[in-house]
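Recap from last week: sequence in, structure out.
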Amino acid sequence: MNPRFNIETINDPRLDPYRDLKQSSRTRWKRFVIAEGWRVTERLLQSSLTIESVLISEDKLEAHQSLVPKEVPLLVVDPKTCEELVGFNFHAGILAAAQRPKRTTFEKWAENFLPDEPVVALPQTNDPDNVGLIARTAAALGVRKMILSTSSSDPFSRRCLRLSIGAVLKLSLFESPRIGEHLQALRSNYGFTLFATVCDPDAPAIAELPVRDRSILVLGNETEGLSTDLKHLCQHRVTIPIQSEVDSLNVSSAAGIMLYEWNRQRHPPRSNGAPGSLKGGALPE
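Predicted structure tokens:
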């Protein structure tokens, strides 16, 4: 049986991790990682992170209490208090707080690369929705490691975690304050080939350029793309041919197309046309 606490006042200090949750992007200074909704909460509870507590609305207690390991404190609040606390219309009725993972070093993150390791790099992806969606797609298509700059949105923010449906927790992440230097090290010291994603009809299409054994897909900023320095650092430029007046795709959509092509090249389709490494369950959750 969980240690259960019926919270009677919004000023209860046990609610502190759940305050000001609308700050969804620049949250690296926060101590806690927050999961929202039963599915992401379940995945946070199954992760290696240290769980602080689970907050649940009274009207969701019967439906979701079984998700919570018996040693985790369960904070029960009435629906009105819950909505007042988090600052938005909270239909899901369940949140969980875990201690934020400690930052790793570049050398530690770079251990145990596979011979054909695919990596995603986000030098400056500012939208937490895009970071979360890219993480979800990357994990689904065989990526284990992602490097992003500290000027990108926080991958452990509530919104990133929710949009990734917890996939952020399955990736090995490195948050770099000097991403150009670290990408150069991956190229020079670890044998990676860097692919710059560009909006340029003269660049090779992603399907025309064979993926290398160790490859990094470097995705540009939502509005400005990649910097000139990063383009020069990459050995190849790739694009997605667009046959309309639309000049570009959302970065998360572009990442999905390019990573699918990489996965297809690494795992050729079976005779029935299905990629060899993919399983069912690709419908939205």
